[in-house]
Amino acid sequence: MTAKPAAPLDEVMLAMDVVDTLRHRQDLATRELAGVTREQQLIDKLRDIYHQQGIEVPDHILKEGVAALQESRFVYDPPKPGFGTSMARLYVGRKRWGKPVGAALVALLVLSVGYFGAWQPYQRGQAEAARIELSEGVPARLDALYQTIFEETKVQKAVVQAEGLRNRGKAYAAEGNSVAAEKAVADLTALRDALRQDYSLRVVNRADVQSGFWTIPEVNTAATNYYIVVEALDADGNALDLPILNEETGQTEVVATWGVRVPESVYDSVAADKRDDGIIQNNEIGRKSSGFLDVEYSLPVLGGAVTRW
């Protein structure tokens, strides 16, 4: 078999190839060096290897490769642990951790923009709006309600109540107590609405509701309290739900029917009217007119009421 002519290689490329050959034939080189200390035998062995491949390598290139082997240039020494080594390993493995870390950074950026760019400004805006409402809006509403009550009422009692509520509400607003200030607004609104109500108070005369009853109070078992059951009807005959203070419990309840305490004589008169023909002829016992707070009764009452019986 005719050997192929050697390719024209410069010395650098030849030196690199010798190093590569030694790396792949390191077992041979190690054995030769260990068994035969003469460098020339290893060079001869390398020359023979290249000659079989049709390549002629100068002796000084072969000597350089052998020297590199003797100097352990091919021994891999792992880098010592340290910051630089850790950073290098992170960089090499960036394809593995890059995407999840990038996604996490993007998510963090979005959250930061949302929190600092949207949520915090929104919160500050809400706080500023609440401050303005408490310092300006609430006092303005209190003044407007008071003025309406002052103009519509026909009794001084309502003006006195309205003025007290307005002053308390403004004081709470100045203190920053929004709950108490809004409560004053609600109470003034309820006072205004109560002034505007117009209804007649009538004894209930239906089969499903008794028209009167009597009780013996626990605090005085020797006494008897008499009540007639009433309801408030507006101009169209619609029953109204009103806040009524129960004298037995001390609690105010919003009800459609309640018991008004009356003298025994009034109770007997209403009972007799109903026994006559089953219908209470004189069933209107009072009227609440717009501009007034209290019912004007047309018969004697004792000023108490109950919501349950």
Properties at a glance:
309 residues, alpha+beta, eight-stranded antiparallel beta sheet, two-stranded antiparallel sheet, 9 helices, 10 strands, 56% helix, disordered N terminus
How would you explain this protein's 3D organization?
It is a single chain. The chain is α+β, with helices and mostly antiparallel strands. 56% of the residues lie in helices and 14% in strands. It has nine helices and ten strands. The strands form two sheets. Strands 1, 2, 3, 4, 7, 8, 9 and 10 form an eight-stranded antiparallel sheet that branches. A hairpin with a 5-residue loop joins strand 3 and strand 4. Helix 6 runs parallel beside helix 8 and helix 7 runs antiparallel to helix 8. It is rod-shaped and about 145 Å long. The protein starts with 10 loop residues before the first helix and ends with a strand.
- Radius of gyration, taken over Cα atoms and rounded to an integer in Å: 53 Å
N-C termini distance:
128 Å
Strand content: 5-15%
- The total strand number stands at 10
Largest sheet properties: 8 strands, antiparallel
Shape: rod-shaped
The helix content, as a percent range, equals 55-70%
Helix and strand succession?
A: HHHHHHHHEEEEEEEHEEE
- Helical stretch tally: 9
What layout of secondary structure does this protein have?
Blueprint: H1 11-24, H2 26-35, H3 39-52, H4 59-70, H5 83-92, H6 94-152, H7 156-175, H8 178-196, E1 199-203, E2 212-215, E3 225-233, E4 239-240, E5 242-245, E6 252-255, E7 257-262, H9 264-277, E8 284-288, E9 296-297, E10 305-306
Helix pairs in contact: 1-4, 3-4, 6-7, 6-8, 7-8
